[in-house]
Amino acid sequence: MARHYRNRKRILVTGGAGFLGSHLCDRLLDAGNEVLCVDNLFTGTKRNIDHLHSHPQFEFMRHDVTFPLYVEVDQIYNLACPASPVHYQHDPVQTAKTSVHGAINMLGLAKRLKCPILQASTSEVYGDPHMSPQREDYWGNVNPIGLRSCYDEGKRCAETLFFDYHRQHGVPIKVARIFNTYGPRMHPRDGRVVSNFIGQALNNEDITIYGDGSQTRSFCYVDELVDGLIRLMNSDEDVIGPINLGNPGEFSIKELAEKIIAYTGSQSKLTFHDLPSDDPTQRRPDITRAQQLLGWDPKIKLDTGIAHTVEYFQNLLNVKQPQY
Ligand code: NAD
Ligand code: UDP
Ligand code: UDP
């Protein structure tokens, strides 16, 4: 036990009240660390971290990362940023500011503290890729002026800042390119495909497929993704990334809808709607780097992950007065 506490770190998680961030806080606390969760609650909710408030090693600070932050920590996970297209397009200027000013402030903090900082980057840096699966050395195909650009280009600029702070100031960086991740605590109304389809199926509502449903995504279960982030943060100093983190299983959106209908036994019908502009047609990670450098290899199959996620959404529906 004593040894356990000697290794305890004080860890900052920005975006810690969000979907991924709250799972990350849980895991870091379980490992015996102190966690400072910084979030402005734009898309995150207190409900995601309610269970942590009485934890003696957990602290929540409501703060917007576009403003400077002066705290003392040993590691920084920078996850603050809306991730669902519906949310990041709601206030695109704020989205770009969060990625860019947020990265500058968190990198300034890491520079002052000389501490490692991990950036939650995204498969969106590949845009609508001409290469599949996507390897980290692919530069991507991104529209700089479209509706998704505030997120895609914001995240690309954040990567640039991470590598420049590393080269110019010697900041120890880690850059993860996260592919579509799903699981419990996804916001039921955040507009992402897994949460939309499960909510619609459980309510026997029409399933809203955008386009003809032939576009593909690769879905990673949240527990495995969080494990990948922690492995990357604690990897050798020369492992800085970028490193793809995602499950290489690739499914069309129509296949996903059919799986969810079959699993829930829903009466829902598939309906087809306009495809949003710049919606990538395919997405699948090459995870050779993560396998070799982190020993990370996600195993949870989509069917299993969907079962856990459906259970979470069923429980939410059974709560008479939901907190969200
Ligand atoms: P999420 O929306 O649930 O969480 C983001 C969190 O950041 C929320 O709690 C939100 O309130 C907070 N936030 C937003 N702007 C902020 C600001 N200016 N200051 C402080 N906090 C702010 O999304 P998520 O799925 O948990 O994503 C977390 C991170 O992982 C994001 O950076 C996202 O880009 C990245 N990512 C996620 C996925 C995925 O599939 N979930 C894929 C690729 C990348
Ligand atoms: N910053 C911060 N916390 C710190 C140190 C810096 O929020 O502990 C912010 C600060 O607002 C600054 C930004 O990080 O604007 C970048 O810091 P850096 O040292 O790179 O730049 P400078 O202060 O020289 O502009
Ligand atoms: N999508 C869909 N119906 C929905 C929500 C999303 O068909 O109700 C599609 C969307 O057009 C995209 C894919 O599902 O092709 C994944 O969308 P999501 O917003 O989850 O993530 P991203 O586009 O960022 O990968």
Automatic annotation (TrEMBL):
The keyword ATP-binding does not apply. One of its GO terms (molecular function) is isomerase activity. GO terms for cellular component: cytoplasm. Its main location: cytoplasm. Its EC number is 4.1.1.35. Its cofactor is NAD(+). Pathway: Nucleotide-sugar biosynthesis; UDP-alpha-D-xylose biosynthesis; UDP-alpha-D-xylose from UDP-alpha-D-glucuronate: step 1/1. Keywords: Cytoplasm, Decarboxylase, Golgi apparatus, Isomerase, Lyase, Membrane, NAD, Signal-anchor, Transmembrane, Transmembrane helix. It is a single-pass type II membrane protein. This is UDP-glucuronate decarboxylase. It comes from Tritonibacter multivorans. The lineage of its organism: Bacteria, Pseudomonadati, Pseudomonadota, Alphaproteobacteria, Rhodobacterales.
